[in-house]
Fold this protein.
Amino acid sequence: MIVDARAEVGGRLAVVTGASRGIGLEVARLLGEAGARVAMVARTERDLAAAADAVGGHALPADVTSPESVRSLAARVVEWAGDSPEIVVNCAGAFAIAPLVETDPEVFARGLDVNLRGPFLVTRAFLPRMMERGGGSIVNVGSIAGRVALPGNAAYSASKFGLRGLHEVLSAEVRGTGVRATLVEPAATDTPLWDPLDPDSRPDLPARAEMLRPAEVARAILFALAQPPEVEISVVSLRSARR
């Protein structure tokens, strides 16, 4: 890696959502290896505790779709670490594929809750302290489905296109404050979100062997975070070179 991640990330306090598996777990791992203190957030306490033990993070179970749970999370981060985070990475995600007319309204609502409402609530909880300090980084993990129309992605695309809009507004509002905003938009990534769909058995879906790996997306996130404070990488678009 060209940049020195430890120089820019070491000693900093980070909050990573969706940290029990997939991209979030790999982000927590890399941040920890770079010397950051990492608060790992996910809903399922047992899975989160095991993940935190594996990578040396601190488990803080929370539901990022609940304002009350996020408020409690913010207080528990300060109680544990003594301050609010300098780095926030929103990785929690929900994913489902179906034609628009076959998409259950509850599935649609769940996608908006996790993929859009969650990052909004978490960012809203931690941004004021970042702006007060005059520095910090917020990374939202979007998707290729947030900029390209893909059949069957009505629920997912609605949430990820929305997240892209949220990022653009956030980026405009923090400009000049010292706070940086980054949107990372990976193509299909081999995470447990694909498990219910069994993509290898479906010709309309990418094969797992052709997908990005969570660690590859995490390295791109770390690269953005490891830039000098005066450099903001606004949008990162990733695709697999395996296909």
User: Anything to note?
Assistant: The beta strands are 13-17, 37-41, 58-59, 87-90, 136-141, 179-186, 235-238.
